[in-house]
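Input structure tokens:
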């Protein structure tokens, strides 16, 4: 396969996709001129409008010039004004005379009208001493006309200017309308070659932590590189690959890596960019996108957030955007269904909500393969951190393996943000490299929030210390609980104090005992306030929200209640109404079981804190003294042996 130039696409605002890897346009004969757009309503309506505008403009010009015109008077009236010494200046050409009076004079035989500027005609046989009278009265005789008249050409240009402006606007609107319902997607010239991208294209070497996903996409790369063996065996290339997973897991990066690894053109667009208020524009854009991809096949078309237009049809009703979305989806279905193996175009789409997609979109023959892209494991996080720290100078004691162990559940985007925050902290501290403290502080900033310089009264600080000590102590004593990484009473974000606990290994499923332990740990703060002060404050709001979510999941979704049974009574989809998921009696039973589980966990939490009151007081005193305690210091202050497990 000949090498392709890596390019980035498109400066045309009417073209919603970007492209890279497309070959430059080959020189050829110039394009044939295309016919101009058809004017809506026909040319006769345009000509009639131009005529009306011309007449209106001419009338306005005549009214405008009427104020500067002169009054035609008889020659006898002129001689009378000369004799009365009321002529100020005049201009004569032959026997024609123009003049200007010193004061207004009544127009002869015309009611009460007056005039100042005048013109008259001197009879050729007149022998009056006109020159002597003018000289005696000091009348100014000029070489230019007193009343300046505009030329016929200037009047014509002024009259035609509005018509030309109207014609230009008319043609502009007609061109837009004929170019695809004012969407700018109809007739367009061939795509222009664009400048090469600086650097190399994205390949699998730039992707880490999702090796199992790369293996599923390797077949697509092999087919695009060398389709002959597949065609000999009668194998058909997948028409589409759907990448489903949480945000930030690298779905777009994977699609670009597939195109870069196969060295084929890559067209990318967001599904929302196809939607317009005018029905039909999105379908037109889809047709043009796939036509451009076929021209440079083999190629890859990537549609991000396809659930924007790919939601199941027939849910609800609407106008405008609803019809446009369905027409755009229908066009995508048609384009994908029309593929043959020889075209060599693969559609890759990404979504966070694969469950809401239309069944016609995910059936075999369209998106043949659904690839789940999840958060990376510990080894994958370490590999991702190595990629994102290529340009970051690391200190000799910086251990990316340890950082990866402290970041379970983080996606590739989260890890990239962590590396960037650590580099920013190093710059702020005037360091030449990034060390463990920068990674640790950056992780705390992301997970706990930024520190707030708030002056808190001593009694409130002590209550906060007991609250956080209750969380930490329950995490230390509860079997199977996540280890306590840090405890602080420094205000961060919206909280006055924070206890950070993260698992040592990645967890993919949770037991009932583990979930009850998490409920006990979340209730540790409010229980500590109850044990020490005999009352509670509003500081446990977020803790109670976490407790409620876990308990409801145990009862209504995960079958951990004998009374409810092994069924789902609470929907996982937050968009679905809670009251429509089950019968009212079942929902009442769910609430009763949730209260029972929380009450049992709270009673156990209070009992544990009472039995370990000395440890609680010691940990609170250490927090009051140091404000923040790391993992080793917190366990040492509480007097609880710290069990170190191998992250592997």
């Amino acid at each position: 396969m000949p090498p392709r130039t890596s390019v980035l696409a498109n400066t045309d605002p009417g073209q919603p996709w970007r492209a890279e890897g497309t070959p430059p346009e080959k020189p050829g004969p110039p394009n044939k001129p295309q016919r101009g757009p058809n004017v809506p309503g026909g040319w006769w309506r345009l000509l009639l409008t131009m005529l009306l505008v011309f007449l209106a403009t001419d009338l306005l010009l005549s009214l405008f010039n009427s104020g500067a015109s002169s009054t035609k008077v008889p020659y006898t009236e002129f001689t009378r004004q000369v004799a009365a010494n009321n002529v100020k200046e005049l201009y004569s050409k032959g026997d024609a005379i123009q003049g200007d009076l010193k004061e207004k004079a009544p127009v002869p035989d015309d009611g009460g009208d007056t005039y100042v500027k005048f013109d008259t005609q001197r009879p050729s046989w007149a022998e009056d001493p006109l020159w002597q009278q003018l000289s005696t009265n000091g009348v100014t005789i000029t070489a230019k006309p007193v009343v300046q008249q505009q030329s016929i050409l200037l009047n014509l240009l002024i009259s035609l200017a509005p018509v030309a402006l109207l014609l230009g606007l008319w043609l502009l609107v007609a061109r837009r309308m004929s170019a695809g319902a004012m969407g700018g997607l109809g007739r367009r010239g061939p795509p222009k070659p664009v400048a090469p991208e600086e650097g190399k294209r994205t390949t699998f070497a730039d992707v880490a932590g999702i090796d199992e996903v790369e293996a599923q996409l390797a077949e697509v790369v092999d087919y695009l590189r060398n389709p002959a063996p597949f065609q000999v065996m009668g194998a058909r290339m997948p028409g589409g690959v759907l990448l489903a997973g949480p945000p930030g897991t690298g779905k777009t990066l994977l699609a670009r890596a597939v195109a870069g690894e196969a060295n084929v053109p890559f067209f990318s667009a967001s599904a929302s960019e196809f939607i317009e208020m005018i029905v039909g524009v999105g379908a037109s854009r889809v047709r043009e996108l796939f036509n451009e991809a076929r021209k440079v096949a083999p190629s890859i078309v990537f549609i991000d957030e396809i659930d924007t237009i790919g939601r199941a049809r027939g849910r609800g009703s609407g106008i405008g955007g609803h019809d446009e979305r369905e027409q755009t989806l229908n066009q995508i279905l048609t384009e994908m269904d029309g593929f043959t193996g020889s075209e060599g175009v693969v559609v890759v789409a990404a979504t966070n909500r694969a469950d809401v997609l239309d069944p016609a979109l995910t059936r075999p023959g369209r998106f043949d393969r659904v690839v789940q892209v999840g958060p990376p494991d510990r080894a994958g996080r370490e590999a991702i951190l190595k990629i994102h720290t290529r340009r970051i100078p690391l200190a000799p004691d910086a251990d990316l393996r340890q950082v990866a162990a402290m970041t379970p559940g983080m996606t590739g985007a989260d890890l990239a943000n962590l590396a960037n925050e650590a580099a920013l902290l190093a710059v702020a501290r005037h360091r030449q490299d990034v060390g463990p403290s920068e990674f640790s502080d950056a992780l705390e900033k992301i997970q706990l929030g930024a520190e707030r310089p708030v002056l808190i009264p001593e009694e409130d600080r002590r209550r906060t210390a007991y609250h956080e000590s209750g969380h930490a102590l329950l995490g230390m004593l509860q079997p199977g609980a996540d280890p306590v990484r840090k405890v602080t009473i420094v205000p961060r974000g919206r909280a006055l104090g924070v206890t950070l606990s993260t698992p040592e290994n990645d967890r993919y499923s949770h037991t009932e005992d583990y979930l009850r332990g998490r409920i006990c740990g979340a209730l540790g703060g409010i229980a500590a306030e109850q044990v020490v002060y005999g009352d509670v404050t509003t500081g446990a709001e977020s803790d109670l929200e976490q407790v409620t979510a876990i308990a409801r999941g145990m009862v209504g979704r995960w079958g951990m209640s004998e009374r409810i049974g092994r069924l789902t009574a609470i929907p996982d989809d937050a968009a679905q109404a809670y009251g429509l998921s089950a019968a009212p009696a079942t929902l009442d039973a769910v609430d009763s079981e949730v209260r029972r589980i929380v009450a049992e966990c709270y009673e156990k939490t209070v009992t544990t804190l009472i039995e370990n009151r000395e440890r609680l007081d010691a940990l609170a005193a250490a927090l009051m003294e140091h404000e923040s305690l790391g993992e080793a210091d917190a366990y040492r202050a509480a007097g609880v042996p710290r069990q170190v497990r191998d992250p592997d």
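The chain has 21 helices and 14 strands. The longest helix spans residues 584-611.
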